[in-house]
Amino acid sequence: MLPSATNILVAALVLVAPCIAQTDRQANDLAPPDAHTTLLVDVDHRTATSLDGDWHAIVDPYSTGLYTFHQEIRKDGFFMNAPFNPHGDPRDYNFAKAGTLKVPGDWNTQRPDLFYYEGVVWYQKDFDYAPKPNTRTFLHIGAANYRSFVWVNTKKVCSHEGGFTPFDCDVTDFVRAGSNFVVLSVDNTRLADGVPTLQTDWWNYGGLTRDVSLVTVPAAFIDDYDLHLSREDRGLIEGYVHVEGAPAGTRVTVSIPELSAKAMVTTDANSRAAVSLPVQHLSLWSPENPKLYTVVLATDPGPGGDSLTDEMGFRTIETRGTQILLNGKPVFLRGVSIHAEAPYRTGRAYSEKDVDTLLGWAKEMGCNYVRLVHYPHDERMTRAADRMGILVWSEIPDYWALQFDNPVVLPKSEQQISEMIRRDRDKASIILWSVANETPNNEARTKYLTTMAALTHQLDPTRLVTAALLVRTEKNASGGTTKIVDDPLGKVLDVIGANEYVGWYEQGLAGVDETTWDVRYQKPLIMSEWGGGAVAGLHAPAGSDHPETWTEEYQADLYQHQIAMLNRIPQLRGTSPWVLMDFRSPRRLNPGIQDDFNRKGLISEEGKKKQAFFVLQKAYEEKALGKPE
Ligand code: GCB
User: Fold this and answer.
1) What is the pLDDT of residues 93-124, one digit of tens each?
2) Cβ–Cβ contacts within 10 Å for residue 178, how many?
3) What residues line ligand 1, using a CB cutoff of 6 Å?
């Protein structure tokens, strides 16, 4: 791991996090050589050998594959992948005979017996490998929820904590010519000191939920870069390219052939080359014009040279008073919140088809923006948002009541935001990094998230930092209620996010009309959640003035009342109602209505649009909700 600023940070965090998770007595013992863990940027544009498909899988609720009967680390654990031998020592496992699970894919929706499972599952796969001189090979794991340990040919190669960000294990010294095998233990046990913590309102889908591949790169390779349009000079692209393993003075070329623009720069002692690339006639990226350019990054050609291409848009994003400025012009964010729940089949979303369906619905509803909750989504999602011209809020699972005063937790959040930014900073669609959702207002929380906001600004000074805050309620003079946005965390945010459920969890429909807002920050406000539940196909009797809750009519009315109320908030610069599609949640147990689903979707999990979908669509299409300035 070479010491670019980001690399040092990511390395430090990756090193720290798995070593100090005290709730899991296993972590220290199993901490593998984490110097072998990094995160390759733009990995989806590299030539890779996919390891997706069927993996042998052993469900191990007692962690028998790791521990002896006296709870000591086993030397002959399942990671040895010993073949069955009728004349040898009897063993308690046999990958060759075990059933399989599909990768990518959560285990919960692949086998009925794993629907509620929380624990360890062992994955095993054989692969062939042909070594090439002067290269390094990484095992790329798009996401494994929540904690994983990785062995190649019986040797520990890396570990990772955090269920929604990618990691790359350097397996160069562990692979051999011919046949190899990889074994992973993936554990989705919820941890009190995890990020997220024990309570969430989404399904704890476990497993290798995103793509897995082998990526071979030259000995010195481009592992990280940042290229963005300067806010001060929209004729200048600036940033850096980091070449892992490159000596000072290594030449790097960054070019955008379509603009005939080229910068030739050299790496410094930290293997990092600062880039300043003047461009003329740049077509700025926006929802109306999602223009992407092919960007070529290359070290010196010839043996040992590395080159990469990316498809990138260029735009600026900033705030002025209560406005959000995209390319210098005020914009209103017509959005919707989206969980990474797969349409039609449920389970964790991972495919192009999932992404096209979810973002296609958002587009159809008239959105120029989406809030991707409550964790980083598959990279396909942000790539597609780039192509489709959809602005994005991206978030880490600093959700509800993390153990903010427990010192082992902060490094986990820091790691996740570092990994999210590193993976996705090349996406023009992302304008907002969110550090938290609905956290309790107390000192420990505010200190923790102030640190997170500062880190986010430091890692990416080009984007806006936000969080979805809870709001306070007071009675107002006219007998209604006033919602007060004054959470002290707002001080360190560029854009205030606020969640409210007036008309659903509180006050009924009439209450929405009587609610006034007191936003104590002269900053842009996004109503990051609002809405209510409805069962698709459940209707109120014709002509009913007071539709019952859970009917499509109630939800549609709620949207009408909310839209009127939201329009009375002067600083409102965006909304992302809750939520695009019904999604699985173990907290939603009302039989015949919820059946393990949060029903606040505008669309059912089977793709049926509810009436409120059309209410919001009309408001967005007619620009009848919100103003850019
Ligand atoms: C919220 C949470 C979201 C929940 C939603 C609900 O405020 O941020 O994760 O799913 O409310 O449906 O209650």
Assistant:
1) 999 999 999 999 999 999 999 999 999 999 99
2) 9
3) 201, 374, 437-438, 499, 529, 578, 598, 600
Residue of 396, 434, 438 with the most ligand 1 atoms within 8 Å of its CB, for mutation:
438
Q: Say if residues 358 and 581 touch (Cβ distance below 8 Å).
A: yes
- In whole angstroms, what is the distance from residue 532 CA to residue 534 CA? 7
Q: What is the pLDDT of residues 11-55, one digit of tens each?
A: 333 333 332 233 333 444 555 444 467 899 999 999 999 999 999
Dist. CA 398–CA 489, nearest whole Å: 14
Pairing status of strand 307-312 against strand 261-266: unpaired
C-alpha span between 206 and 186 (Å, rounded): 8
**DSSP-derived pairing of the beta strands 464-469 and 495-499:** parallel
Q: Which residues pair with 144 in a beta bridge?
A: 208
Question: Which residue's alpha carbon is nearest to atom 13 within ligand 1?
Answer: 201
The full 3-state SS of 309-344, as one line of letters, equals: EEEECCCCEEEECCEEEECCEECCEECCEECCECCC
Measure the CA–CA gap between 138 and 132, rounded to whole angstroms.
13
Q: Which residues of the chain have pLDDT under 50?
A: 1-28, 32-35
Distance, CA of 89 to CA of 76 (rounded, Å): 11
Ligand 1 atom nearest to 585, measured from its CA = 10
Specify the residue with its C-alpha closest to ligand 1, atom 4.
Answer: 201
DSSP-derived pairing of the beta strands 337-338 and 369-372: parallel
Contact (Cβ atoms closer than 8 angstroms) between residue 206 and residue 106: yes
Residue 104: cis peptide before it, omega within 30 degrees of 0: yes
Number of Cβ atoms within 10 Å of the Cβ of 132: 10
For residue 81 the two structure tokens come to: 């992948």
Q: Are 601 and 346 in contact (CB under 8 A)?
A: no
| CA nearest to 106, candidates 60, 144, 68 | 144
Distance CA 169, CA 147 (A): 14
3-state percent breakdown (helix, strand, coil) of the chain, nearest 5 = 20, 30, 45
pTM over 0.85: yes
Among 387, 264, 389, smallest CA distance to 331 is for 389
